[in-house]
From TrEMBL:
PANTHER family: CYCLOCHLOROTINE BIOSYNTHESIS PROTEIN O, YALI0B05434P. The keyword NAD does not apply. GO terms for biological process: mycotoxin biosynthetic process. It comes from Cordyceps confragosa (Lecanicillium lecanii). Keywords: Membrane, Transmembrane, Transmembrane helix. The chain crosses the membrane at residues 43-64. It holds the Pfam family UstYa. This is Tat pathway signal sequence. Pathway: Mycotoxin biosynthesis. Belongs to the ustYa family.
Length: 274
């Protein structure tokens, strides 16, 4: 006998609507939201990885890269305004054998005296009070010499470069009895007073002696401070009584003196005479 269900007939039940009336649409929206979140996560994660890799590369570069000679110079030297464009370096051998010709060697002549004077008779440099502080030279009770035309509200103070003072000590003309290194090898009669004016202390032997001692002490201090540790090689030479000779054509890394002169001539100031 047919059942009641069969008798009454079967009709498939239609899918019930959800509260919004669209299950498929809601599922699609949620999938899209999840996909969007996943995309943002991938972008953020990739960005973080990129930043990390860039930082790692920069760290490696800073760790393994070598500073330039100029950077090393600044780190191992007191402050100087000349580092702002006036310092370059060269590397090579000195030309310094015993009989090496040079315009700075030989008996006194006007040309030789002028060549020496050009090495040190150069403009000074101007410093602000902040730059003087970088030299650790500000102290109570000490005032500094302002250059002509300096702004009273922001003064510029006069200074000379130590290298010019040192070369001046080698080049200055004084008594034979109290002469400096270069002039000590030549008697005063070989100098012509018309070439240059003599220093004021030529009339005072004691003052001249003190000046010379000051110069020798300045050179000693500088040589010991910048103690050059470059090896001077001994070469075999059977023609020498000792069987060897020292090679004074020593390899060096140096500051370019001409570049420094260009800088002080372009940016220098007049320093009142002492």
């Amino acid at each position: 006998m047919p059942s009641d269900v069969t008798a009454k007939g079967y009709r498939p039940v239609e899918a019930a609507d959800n509260e919004n009336g669209d299950w498929d649409g809601d599922l699609t929206r949620r999938e899209a939201q999840l996909a969007q979140k996943e995309k943002r996560f991938r972008i953020a994660f990739g960005g973080n990885i990129l930043v990390f890799l860039i930082s790692l590369c920069l760290l490696a570069i800073s760790w393994f890269s070598k500073p330039s000679l100029l950077e090393c110079d600044k780190m191992t030297s007191p402050y100087s305004p000349v580092f702002n464009g006036g310092v370059q370096h060269w590397e090579g051998h000195f030309q310094n054998v015993f009989n090496q010709t040079s315009k700075y060697r030989g008996p006194p002549t006007l040309e030789l005296e002028s060549a020496w004077e050009e090495l040190w008779y150069q403009p000074g440099v101007g410093l602000s009070i902040d730059e003087i502080a970088k030299l650790n030279k500000t102290r109570p009770g000490v005032s500094f010499t302002e250059i002509d035309g300096s702004d009273p509200k922001n003064p510029t103070y006069a200074a000379t470069l130590e290298v010019f003072h040192q070369i001046h000590c080698l080049a200055s003309r004084v008594f034979p009895a109290c002469s400096l290194v270069r002039q000590a090898t030549w008697p005063l009669r070989m100098f012509n007073e018309s070439w240059h004016s003599y220093p004021w202390f030529l009339t005072d032997e004691l003052a001249g002696r003190m000046h010379v001692d000051h110069c020798l002490e300045s050179l000693r201090l500088s040589l010991m401070c910048y103690a050059d540790v470059t090896p001077v090689l001994a070469e075999n030479n059977p023609m020498r009584p000792t069987g060897l000779q020292l090679d004074f054509n020593v390899h060096h890394k140096c500051r370019n003196f001409d570049k420094m002169i260009e800088y002080v001539q372009a940016h220098g100031v007049d320093v009142p005479p002492e």
